[in-house]
Amino acid sequence: MNRDIRTVEDVLTLLDRLFLPEADRWTDDASGWWDDFHADRSSGRPFFVPKPDENLVSYLDRGLLAPGGRALDLGCGAGRNAIHLASQGFEVDAVDLSATAVARARERADEAGAAVRFHCGNVFGPELPLTRYDLVYDSGCLHHLPPHRRVSYLALLDRVLVPGGSFVVNCFAAGATGSELPDAELYRNGRLDGGPAFTADELRRLLTDFTEVEIRPMVPQPPESGLSGIPVLLTALFRRPPQA
Known about the structure:
Elements: H1 8-16, H2 31-39, H3 54-61, E1 70-74, H4 80-87, E2 91-96, H5 99-112, E3 116-120, E4 133-139, H6 149-160, E5 161-172, H7 183-189, H8 200-206, E6 211-217, E7 233-239
Parallel strand pairs: 1-2, 1-4, 2-3, 4-5
Antiparallel strand pairs: 5-7, 6-7
């Protein structure tokens, strides 16, 4: 079929195909790439350490996030933040594209005695048992999406985040890692170049319908710390307006 564009989703899917397969790391077709990424547990990748993000712990310690409630962890990897959220009384659903990562996350949750519901699939796909969440947490998902899928991402937030709910995103920081090319150049090149990096102002523009609570670089942590701090990431906490 040559004339099969009928819906917005059809347009977004067409745009997905403009990127080379190795650059497309969020769709179900990329699950094998992420399985390989997560297969080597001894690789020393900072995302693999069984430690929660320092910003998540800080938000909870400072009362910027209230313990308890319902939380959705997008791109949960091996479950380190989902498990911490469960330990703080949250009812947690966690989604990742990699079956290897999800299997490891379930092992860790069992070892920790944490009740987390893990789901394998891209973040827009799984049918979740809850329709609304008090917290949506993203540590490394946004910067792997092609630019047009930010539309889908914002629609997901609009659908699942309760009015007054909190949204946390940790993404590549401009000047530290990732691509700083304009979105249009990414399409011309057919590559994400590792993933788009963001400035604080770019996050503010993307989330213009949300209230900013804090945006800052992630604080690096010494090896002996019980927390994870990846210095190439920007971390941000936003609140959805109560009357959303």
